[in-house]
Amino acid sequence: MPFWERQADSASAEKPQTDEGRRFGVESGSCAYAYQKKQEQDEHPSNQDRYFTAGRAFGVFDGVGSLAESGTAAEMARDAIINKFQQYPRKLNVSEAQNLAQQSLETAQAAVMTLRGAGETTAAIGVIAYKENGERALIVAHAGDSRVYLRRQIQGKWQIYCLTVDDSEASKNMNQADAVRLQNKLDEVVDIEEAAKRGQVTPQEYTAYKQRHVMSNSVGPHAKGLNISGAWDIFTGDEIIIATDGVHDNLTNSEINKTLTEGKNSQEQAIALNNAAYLRSQDTRHPRHKADDITSVVTKVVAEDLQPVTPEAPTAPTDIKAGGQIKGWTVIARNGDFAILNKPELDEVGKEYTRTRTVYLPNYLQGLEQTD
After folding, report:
1. Tens-place pLDDT, residues 111-165
2. C-alpha dist (Å) from residue 197 to 120, 206, 271, 331
3. Strand pairing report for 26-33 and 11-17
4. CB atoms within 10 A of CB 6
5. What is the pLDDT of residues 325-359, one digit of tens each?
6. With 80 as the cut, is the pLDDT of residue 22 above it?
7. Are 127 and 59 in contact (CB under 8 A)?
8. How far apart are CA 146 and CA 163, in angstroms?
9. Residue 93 near residue 309 (C-beta atoms within 8 A)
């Protein structure tokens, strides 16, 4: 019997959402596992995670801490956002999608505040929008440490990129570029104590790793502002993964990437990802293990018949697009003035690996920011 059927009392999974999703060129699958109590006196509340898939939009929410109503907060935030998007059934241009994401999270914030401090939640949502030329784009909105990833096949190899930076005490005073670099590094650390002994992390990075669970922003009484991204280029074949910290606390980014190859469709991928995170969370010998609620939504970008959309406001012209080259680096994704770049390199023993970094384009193109 499959693992997820054995866990039926504490797990939920939806069939791939196709009919409405294909109007926007996406197919979504989702899965949620509740925290497994080890002892009766365990004070962790029942499952505090919530998620949704609704055509052009999809997201996850994670009730913060052990507050009695944090699960309710996650549910209220989810319902408020779903209701907002249902008011706009048509396709949206980039500006409209950004505004709707902003309004949705503000509506969620107002709803959660009616709990009078008894609950709060993280949020991470993705919205499919359309550029003036009809191509699709991804708008990302988040608060807290729930994440949005983009997974893309480059020269036959799947690469994964985190599009959000956790709102944590570790990064709240950093600029965007430094926060991205820190998170990318710590996401691949398997054993922080061993890494510290070997000098592979600095004392500051060690402290940041230990503080990564302390949130500096959420939907609720500790809200410090909502993070709304520009338009990330997306293409047929791309995969968008949205997950709560029960996934990325237990698995490194490389493990997430590898696990996603195990599913034939978005639903199987979501289940495989939750399985891997759950098994790790129960392995008390592993340095990254953390018992928690575990939720993921996997969305595949599929072919569609494009329809005209209302043109968005004109933006500065540029020929820097995903798939292009800049100074020997491949452009993986573009978000306004930021871009994710990568290129193959050899490590100290001659083994090839892919080097990735995020650059601020205005500085980089003028030589004010270097990749080496």
Report:
1. 999 988 778 999 999 999 999 888 899 999 999 999 999 999 988 899 999 999 9
2. 37, 11, 36, 35
3. antiparallel
4. 10
5. 777 788 877 766 666 777 887 766 667 767 776 66
6. no
7. no
8. 11
9. yes
Q: Is 316 exposed, middle or buried (0-12, 13-18, 19+ CB in 10 A)?
A: exposed
For the record, the structure tokens of 12 come out as: 């939920």
Give the three-class secondary structure for 13: strand
> Hey, what are 321's tokens?
């697009």
Q: Of 184 and 309, which is predicted with more confidence?
A: 184
75's tokens: 């549910």
Burial call 319-345: b when 16+ CB within 10 Å, e when fewer: eeebeeebeebbbbbbbeebbbbbeee
State the angle between helix axes of 203-210 and 176-186 in degrees (0 to 180), rounded to the nearest 10. Answer: 80
For the chain, the residue count is 372
Distance from C-alpha of 90 to C-alpha of 67, rounded to nearest angstrom = 38
pTM value?
A: 0.78
Instruction: Output the six-digit token pair for 347.
Output: 């490590």
CA distances from 87 to 65, 81, 100, 139, 244 (A): 32, 10, 10, 18, 26
In this structure, which long-range contacts are made by residues 202-207, counting pairs with CB atoms below 8 Å and at least 24 apart in sequence?
Answer: 207/170
